[in-house]
Design goal:
The longest helix has 27 residues. The protein is mostly helical and 132 residues long. It is built from 7 helices and no strands. The chain has one domain. α3 runs antiparallel to α4, α4 packs antiparallel against α5 and α4 packs antiparallel against α6. The chain is elongated. Keywords: Endoplasmic reticulum, Membrane, Transmembrane, Transmembrane helix.
């Protein structure tokens, strides 16, 4: 059932990376599984609890990493010659932009998180340790 759903998505949105991912995309998938996914419960805890300034550095690392991977993915969508792909890729600029719009939120949300961590005064404030 899930493979049918994946096939339907890849066909509908002409996303061959989901059916036959390039090696660099596979590396990004590993990063997502072993770095990004474990970060999510930690971040959820910190943001739900509130007042956790310690999340600033991990959130900056996370958001920068995710944004960097998305720049590569978006560039691939925009510039790659999909005519040689085994699975159907975008053929027109419109199809490229539709596929781009699916991946774009995965760039915008980490950039919003990065902007928050860098510019929000709550997270910029550094607590000084008390001396005994």
């Amino acid at each position: 059932q899930l493979t049918d759903l994946l096939q339907q998505y890849a066909t509908s949105f002409r996303d061959p990376m989901m059916l036959q991912p390039p090696e660099w995309f596979k590396a990004f998938i590993c990063c997502e599984a072993f770095l990004q996914l474990p970060f999510l419960p930690v971040a959820a805890y910190a943001f739900l609890k509130g007042g956790c300034r310690w999340i600033r550095t991990p959130a900056i690392i996370y958001s920068t990493h995710v944004a960097t991977t998305l720049f590569a993915i978006l560039a691939h969508i925009l510039f790659h010659d999909f005519s040689k792909s085994e699975h159907a890729g975008p053929r027109s600029l419109r199809e490229r932009l539709v596929l781009l719009s699916i991946y774009l939120p995965y760039l915008l949300i980490p950039l919003l998180l990065l902007f928050t961590m860098l510019c929000n005064p709550h997270y910029k404030h550094v607590e000084k340790r008390k001396r005994k």
